[in-house]
Amino acid sequence: MHIVVCIKQVPDSAQIRVHPVTNTIMRQGVPTIINPYDLFALEEALRLRGAHGGEVTVLTMGPPMAEDALRKALTYGADRAVLLTDRCFAGSDTLATSFALSRAIVRIGETFGAPDIVFAGKQTIDGDTAQVGPGIAKRLGLLQFTYVAKIASIDLDAREITVKRRSEGGMQMLKSRLPCLITMLEGTNEIRRGSLDDALRAARSQIVKWSAAEAGIEDLTKCGLRGSPTVVKRVFAPTTRAEKATQIDMTDKTQHGVADELIAAIFTRQPALEHELAFDGGQ
Amino acid sequence: MIEEEFDAIVVGAGMSGNAAAYTMARQGLTVLQLERGEYPGSKNVQGAIMYADMLEQIIPDFRNDAPLERHLVEQRFWLMDDTSHTGMQYRSDDFNEAKPNRYTIIRAQFDKWFSRKVREAGATVLCETTVTDLVRNAKGKVIGVRTDRAGGPIYADVVVLAEGVNGLLGTRAGLRKMLKPQSVALAVKEMHFLPDEVIEQRFGLQGDEGCVIEAAGTISRSMAGLAFLYTNKESISLGIGCLVSDFAKTMESPYVLLDAFKNHPSIRPLIAGSEVKEYSAHLIPEGGYKAIPQLFGDGWVAVGDAAQLNNAIHREGSNLAMTSGRIAGEAIIEIKGRNQPMIRRNLALYKTMLDKSFVVKDLRKYKDMPALIHTNSRNFFMTYPQLMSQAAQNFMRVDGTPKIEKEKATTAAFIKARSRWGLISDVVRLALAWR
What is this structure's pTM? Predict the structure, then answer.
């Protein structure tokens, strides 16, 4: 089976800095990483390949330096990497990005075989929208499972897949046809360490690079800044505030005693809250 | 099982490893370079000043695209006591030349660039791959390495140990001894972000001009140590290092020294308003000529910090690393060209070539210096800086005391602190060690 995994190269948020004067994010010199959520998707794809055979293609859209992220994905064991890179993609929001990626996935299908599953991470750590995965599914007419915790089973002959999905208030077991799009939840697996063979292969692989035209994208009005209705009004650093913590002595208290004291402490600080909760019938 | 065999495996992607890998790959040797860090430079720590001449001999047109911070036009040497510094300062417009001699660099960025050059030259570079063992044949010749990744070993005619100061691999393989605390310094460093215009204003710089301060004195609390402050484009690197054996003796903490240095009245205004971007620590070989270990053997050579090649007096390390890496690469190319095996007898060529270079000549010149400075650290790093400072203040302060009495007081202070014979012997021994 053929699995396509969409990944994104993001600035390492642990090392990002805000310019003290202009308040803008200083991207220069900030190390980049594969969006951590995407690694759960990649690992799941590699596991499925291990169990059912086939190939894993990683796909990203970004500047030429995004090649680093793809090469890293190859080091983990992916078979092939495609970089969608073109100046006309600059400034893409989630709408334009999902459009471009969906076209690239069609082209990947034509070139390397139609994908059975398209994977994406739950969301990215820089945009945090969780919109691109569903956007791709919509455009490709794929059934989609978001926030998947586990792939329970795949029946390639019957073209069926069963997944466990986190939803509000519980877990759902869902069954559907292939092909489909899955966004993986974090913590569902742990990315493997590629073998020496994988590492050597990754270091020497040619990464497939497609421009918009090569990916079969004709309508450039849907790409980049032109295809992005999102407007960033303002970027600001939240003002830090310091509030003194109150210590509550817990020694020699029962659970109920602690809870009572905690609630009393909150109500002392927030008298309005006590009032509201009482009227809502809260106990 | 990796079928392929390489001409050379280079362990480490710092200055020496990159120089060796680049030199060999450019001459068509098949080179595999293994780096444990996430990317080349991610684990490499240096001040850092880069010396152009040594890099020019490897990549002549490096200025076209290497990430350089500032070229240095000014050098300040400071002797510090707790409230003052007595300084010597050299600044010259001659350093604003077409091909400047010294640059500040940020290793994380510089090493990435250097590694790209290595890959462009044809070497295969694997990161996040730690070499765990050397593989030897029945005769004991090193024939390859094992790594912490599944699969392998990987074989090569020769292994270049460019693994850095700790030399864990070489030590484990019995090729060198553990570092001695008295021949290695521990340095801690911080990078402080400041807008470029602020840096230029505080240090009187224009454009890419840079300034360096190197300081010794009571800041090292009588230990043998040195502090530094380097200007980058949009940041200031500053740090302090002392001998590990001195740290062990005094039980001082490196970060306490660094905090004190940052709060020194001469330093504080220079970094005021800055934001700490990163902090790091590094061991620096300080043993000099007498601490150089065995540099070659059957199937292996050692370069850079792994070979303890560091000139502590002139605070040069990376250029010795680059040069030793290049020379090792050239020696291996030469032996390969003669179709000779990479055995001890042939690899001795590396040592012969290195002995003729500035690397060993400089270290030999100062062979007695480490012992002198390290055993008399209290005099050199506490007593003299304080005396200098007192003398300078005595000279500057106008308070109605007759000049003759001031001079007498200064002389008396020196003699009281070190005695006539002590002073003479320090001067003579310093001069001899310098010679």
Answer: 0.85
